[in-house]
Amino acid sequence: MSEAFLSRRVVFPLKIKLVVIMAALLVSSISLYAIFALNLFEKDKSAYIYGNSSEANLSFNNRVSNYLSSTFDKLQILSYMPIEKVGDILGNYQDVLHLDIYKDGEQKSSFYNQSQIENLGHSVEEYKRIVGSLNIQDINGFIIFKDQLESYLVLKYFNKENSLNLVMFLRTNYLESILSSFSQYDSYILNPDGTAFFGDISKNYFDEIKEKSLKEATIEVDTVEPKILSYIIDAKFKLIFISEISKKEAYKVNEYLLGKSKIFGLVLLSLSGFIALLFSRSLTSPLEKLYDLTLSISKGEFTKKAEISSRDEIGALGDSFNYMSEEILRYMDEMKEKARLENEIETAKYVQSTYFPNENLGLNSFNISSFYKPASECGGDWWGYYESDKFLTVVITDATGHGVPAALLTATAHCCLENLKQGDESIIRSPEKVLEFMNRSIQCLEGKMLMTAFCCVFDKERGEVLYSNASHNPPLYRGFDYDVNAKNNFKPLLGSNGPRLGHKGFGDYKVDSIDISEVERVLLFTDGILESKNSEDRDYGQRRFLKSLNANIAEANDVFRDNIVSGAFDFYGDIPIDDDVTIVSVKSEDIKKEEATKSGNIDDSELKTLLNKNLKEECKKYVTDKVINDSRFVFISSREDCENISILKENESINHLVGRNSPHLVHEIQHNIENYKESLSLGEYLGEAHFHNTTVREKSDFEKINNLLGTLDADGYFESPIDYLKIISNELLTNALYHSGKGSVFNERSEMDRQSSPLLGEDEHIDYSLAVGREFIAICVIDFTGRLDREVIVSNLERSFREREHQNKNGGAGLGLFLAFSYSNQFIVRRRPGVSTEVICIIEKNKRFKTYKERITSFHYFEEQEKV
């Protein structure tokens, strides 16, 4: 924008505006004040004038009435006095001219006050001639008698007691003095009929008085020349006393005040105009500086400042302009930084997108269709997978919040899975190990960022779907058989729920499982799809989500995914999602129920009847009398021990072989399936048994074991079970002693002559337990090397059955394992790789030795999953 465009011609300068505004304010304020004050003053003055007029008229009435009353009192006194004394008394009255006394209508006496008559400028004879024209009979109480020059007050009094009539003539000078005492008012007296009684009357307002119908009032009369009139109707003397004053005269002080106000207003107006001119300069000068500053800013010169020293709003405005310039510079720097960060975020967004697999994956046995949409540039959701020939592992995570911090956490999760892909396959095959590995990796954040996760392993070899949960919402699955009209085709994968990743140092995540034949599709998702809202602030929610799943249950995996997503986002409308949305649909393509069907076929009809009647329903599908190389199944064998060992050798995945003639066949099957799923402790595995525990560090400790066995009560067993228990104990302990230690120590001990005894160190020991139950006696030996695995055990048993001699090989088990296996009814091995091996040999309660010897030895091998 050019400087010329910013400039405009000033038509109405700010100085003139200030002068006009101040003048207008003063004129309006003074005018309003004058109007208000004068109005208030006028009201107050009116009250004063009306009250004063009323008081003056009342005083006028009282003085005249008192004068008339006192005069009548004089007449009353004179009417009782002797006539000869009346003259003397009458001479003392200054205003009395003469007195006539009548008796029975005839004049009896007359008294003249010569001095007072002469003061009027008349002789007595002239006076008599003037008043002689008055007819005494016409007088009723008192009248004013007038001639051409004078007026007289004539009073007539009748004494009923002596029938005397007294008529007194008085001068009106006293009445005139009363009138003159109210100089501001025009006072006069009217008769009741409205005729004049006394006083000068310019205009008679009797009609106005008559209209009021009040005995006393103050009113405004005459519209031409307004007057304020006060009147009193005297009931005693039947006279109307009136005092009036011109309204203009009464209110002339208002005019005076108004004139003074105008002069004062003009003075103030002139003074304010002068001050406004002075003040405007102090105002316009800083404004001109601010204007110059805006021109500089428009040119991009943000470093210039407006130097304004006034400590007022304009000074504050100048400071604001200066601050604005600084902020613009800072904002421009921030915009540059923001642009750089946005570029980096775009890069981060691109990098994060590479962490996600393709939306549509066609794997060997599975089809995966996924969808991911972050709530901001970068999201906190992530999912990944790993596939081998034997299993498929799928992981989904949801970090707390979203944005860059959450995205960095997903990068950690992605790296964890990538590292596991390069490492030991046994870890990535175990969902609880995967979660524990990721949990340890996130511990560096010290709980500031957490992440929920769910790991699911589709194990085709074992025929199971294994899963572990780290506080994630459980995925939904459905089987191969479903009803399109049903509402509950999809069920949650429920089980143990561990802590969020990063919450605890050791998550102790548990693994749960279902048969893979029960799963045709698994839908993993984050809670963003459920919790995002529409324009009515309503969540999409679980009910709508499940309804959408059932509506698309028969669709192909990618169509199923697309319809689920479009249904949710149609619900959201134009409202942005609150959280990242991720769904992963895993569909099994060719894993059917063949294995389950095969394992369910038991040829032995008697065995089938027994199991169908007594075995728990969930265990039946894992039992077979056929040789199936699958770690999930329990193989029931009627073969000899040596043949069974060969079967175990040839089928490395068979971990559970139960002798067909087991006296507690159903219990043994169910109990070992339970241990396979739950990893029971020794006490839980052996149940209600009495334990005798001790430790062994050298061969000399065997003696205390034999002494312990010698005290054993073997009532109910065949003749000599204790001898076999001693052999089993000694062989297991010998094997554990000579195969203990690590590295060169292990090599040295395993090559020692069996006549010599290794001596374990202070931190080494072998645990020995004797457990006596109601139906069995068990011996348990635990070493703490964990070297003895299934391959070593089965290989050495197979060789011992074949050759019946020791194997001289480092790390191998000798004839001791063969003897322990042969003399046991159940041979159980529970191993923690690299930690410990627990060998349990059980002799079942039998009274007949033949039954004991004919018992087909059961073999159970458990390998506890290694903690990450």
Automatic annotation (TrEMBL):
Pfam families per record: HAMP, SpoIIE
Transmembrane segments: 20-41, 263-280
Gene Ontology CC: membrane
Biological processes, Gene Ontology terms: signal transduction
Gene Ontology molecular function: any one: kinase activity
Superkingdom, natural source: Bacteria
UniProt-listed PROSITE patterns: HAMP (PS50885)
Domain named HAMP: residues: 281-333
Keyword vocabulary terms for this entry: Hydrolase, Kinase, Membrane, Transferase, Transmembrane, Transmembrane helix
Name of the protein this chain belongs to: Two-component system, sensor kinase
Origin species: Halobacteriovorax marinus (strain ATCC BAA-682 / DSM 15412 / SJ)
